[in-house]
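Inputs:
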Amino acid sequence: MDLPQTSKLSPDLPAAAPLRSGPAAARKPWKPQSTRLRWVMLGPAMLVIAATVLYPLASSFVTSFRDWRLTNSPLPGPFVGFANYARAFTDTAFINSLGVSALYMLLSVSLTLIIGLGIAMLLSKPTKLNVLTRTLLIFPFAVAPVLKGYSWKFMLNPEYGVYAKMIGDVFHPLRGYIWLGHEFSALCAIAMSEVWGWAPLFALMFIGALGSIPGETTEAAKVDGATSFQIFRKITLPLLAPVIYIVALLKIISAFKMFDQVSIMTGGGPGDSTQTLYFNVFQTAFRNLDMGYASALSYLLVALMGVIATFYVRTLLKGS
Amino acid sequence: MQSTVNRPAVRGPSPLARKRLAQGAEIVATLIVIFFVMFPLVWMILAAFKTEIDVYSTRLFFQPTLDNFRAIFADPILLGSHTWVSALVSFVTVAITVPLGAAASYVLSRHRFRGRDSLFLAILISQFVPAVVVAIPFFNLFRTLGLIDTPVALIVVYLSFTLPYAIWMLRGFFDALPVEVEEAAFIDGCNELQTLRYVTLPLVMPGLLVAGVFAFISAWNEYFFALILTRSDSLTLPVAMQTITGPRGPMWQQVSAAGIVVMVPILVMSLFIRKYFVAGITVGAVK
């Protein structure tokens, strides 16, 4: 009996509906609420989250206070208090990875924002070519990070890499330059493989936000004699600021999680110049098999993520 | 006022020529963007059809070959079995994520009870838990249970990120549905479960599809956990690609062929849900 009504409604429903968390339902209480049904429906998901997120969080926390090297014994060793945490502050490899990750974060976030903004400004007008190009923008992000790593490593090979060759042809001193063999350029190459994935996505987000800027505002500014750069500085950028803030936070979080391309492209080298935080903890846990210390390091990561996530969540909640 | 408007016309070329020039510059810039976005993909696709000799040159025209695809699905790489593991793990992850996520997000959207918002917030925050924290205990647990190198191990850890994400995303879809439709069904005599079955679920179908696709993509592309929790039998595609090496490092023509196997299903899927793609990444972040 309800089916005809449903089919009548469905074509024009959620397609254009905004994905917001400010519940329409919150204003009007939904009447049929069976308490039993509530827990039957919520229960399984909560159990899975408890088992796959809470359990490891708790377990890692306990392990972070123990001495547990799998090279010595398969069973957890004695509790050592804060020794694992104290060790992190004198561990040069860990401190180095903090620096690498911070530098990588700055590089990848700023490049993504600048390139993303540039693409968005260029494609903001809905001409035919622009709309077609916008569709292409989703592809790089969907590609597996591992493939991003392979593809950029391949293209930057000094002997047969097509990007390396192009750069060398334009700028002769860089001919045959070993991009992944030098500290800073290796980090830049990893950053570029990631920027390639994220910048187009950022552009799409900015284009969405640009669409909500009323045309009359820029029109009026133009009539008043403002240059395009002034319009960008004084109108577009301030209106985009909230979006820029939230996507930058998203990118910062993802930058601190960088692992895949490091593993594929450089393996942390040359030297330890591309050993990001994730890569360092991975090495400690699964190459050196030092579970206690690795757990302590991963908890330091939890703290770092917690700080950034707080900003992110707070902005989201304010928004809705 | 008048003079300000006319000024550009006075010096330099005529307004029409200026406009043409600006349009031309814009088209050139757009072509550069297309190049930047598509070239790495195109180059990889081309490499997959090159011979070993052609792949080490940067030439654009060559005699295409399917040998690389034959090679990766034959001994010793046997990419077919890894494709199967990847597909199995991804599909089972989706099959668990979508129903559980839909049920939970329905309750979180439609029911009102104490602690609901804190619970939702906790689910949101759980997405920020770093993967290494999840990996260490599960590695040790699976080691003692003998589950290392099995699809089960991967599915369990993949749920740690797909489920919170799906709940977060699907709640947005449920919230976007007007409650009035469900109330009408209720007044017509449906109980809550019937209303859900015949009214709410059909309406939220696009959301289920999008959540499913996102869960699939993140499981299919996943590398970190797969690297830690598999050895040989259950290597997923992203990890198995590392086995395609010769004496001179990766054999690029075959790596690229494997890359196509990894990439094409995902590109097709993301094209399918492209309307939701951006919103899906931030889920309500950008309005």
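Chain A touches chain B through 123 residues (CB under 8 Å). Flag for discussion at group meeting.
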